[in-house]
Write a structure and sequence with these properties.
By secondary structure, this protein is α+β, with helices and mostly antiparallel strands. It has 2 domains: 8-155, Four Helix Bundle (Hemerythrin (Met), subunit A) (Up-down Bundle), CATH 1.20.120; 162-231, Nonspecific Lipid-transfer Protein, Chain A. It is built from 7 helices and 6 strands, in the order ααααββααβββαβ. It has helices spanning 8-27, 45-68, 78-89, 93-112, 136-150, 162-176, 212-219, and strands at residues 122-124, 130-132, 185-189, 195-198, 206-210, 229-231. The strands form 2 sheets. It has a 4-stranded mixed sheet with strand order 4-3-5-6. It has a two-stranded antiparallel sheet with strand order 1-2. Helix 2 (45-68) crosses helix 3, helix 2 packs antiparallel against helix 5 (136-150) and helix 6 (162-176) crosses helix 7. The two termini are 20 Å apart.
């Protein structure tokens, strides 16, 4: 499984589709459901929705940096990022929907205004990771689709677009391969028959098998390994959080 190169135009189109699907799902919620727990520890659905809106704005900042050459941090700082999420979490459902739409439109416009040469510009993520601006639409796609799962409103990893599941699984495995701090595991995708090794060992003692979306759910922290079969029958190791 090879890691796919970013394609800003294609990825931005996928973001638009995923955002519309998210908005349709969120619009079916009852007003009280926004304050209920999401599947992310410590966050309500309102926290997740506020995060998604502000995350869109954060990528506008990075695209501004790429377009103008003027350093524009993704977020001003960790404290203000957290405060914006906390302050926005308690909004009524209608306001959340408005914020999601407006922030998504701002990001779509920023993508449209980015000239071809700017996609090669290097920008710095909140984590400190340096990426090419061309990765931004794909990274937003990850946020929209995986947090749609995290809302816990019926959309699961099994519902993710097949091409996205393949791509994200390849990216996550690539990041975990050869990593000294990761448990050595052989992954076996029973859908395709493909096998990969994560961690630093060449020949892991543990093989974890299952359908692609169940593997993806586990390696991204969206499940504890439901649907997967470990051989030998040992508890699945804890993997590092998706960065």
């Amino acid at each position: 499984m090879s890691v796919q190169r970013p394609d800003p135009a294609r990825d931005a189109a996928a973001v638009r589709e995923a955002t519309e699907q998210l908005l349709e799902s969120v619009a079916t919620l009852t007003p009280s459901a926004v304050a209920e727990p999401s599947q992310l520890p410590g966050w309500t659905r309102g926290h997740l929705l506020a995060h998604l809106a502000r995350n869109a704005d954060s990528y506008v900042n990075l695209l501004t940096w790429a377009r103008t050459g003027e350093e524009t941090p993704q977020y001003a700082d960790q404290e203000s990022r957290d405060k914006d999420i906390e302050d926005g979490a308690g909004r009524p459902l209608g306001e959340h929907l408005d914020e999601l739409r407006i922030s998504a439109d701002r990001l779509a416009y920023a993508v449209e205004q980015t000239p071809p040469q700017a996609w090669a510009a290097q920008v710095v993520m909140r984590s400190g990771r340096v990426i090419a601006a061309a990765e931004i639409p794909y990274r937003r796609l990850i946020e929209v689709l995986l947090h749609h799962v995290d809302l816990g409103i019926g959309y699961t990893c099994a519902d993710l677009p097949a091409d996205f599941a393949v791509r994200v699984l390849a990216n996550v495995i690539d990041g975990l391969s050869g990593h000294e701090g990761v448990a050595a595991v052989r992954l076996h995708d029973t859908d395709s028959g493909e096998k990969w090794t994560i961690g630093a060992a060449n020949e892991p003692d543990l093989t974890v098998s299952g359908p692609r979306t169940d593997l993806l759910a586990w390696v991204t922290g969206r499940s504890k390994g439901e649907g997967l079969t470990p051989v030998p029958a040992l508890p699945l190791p804890v993997l590092p959080p998706l960065g």
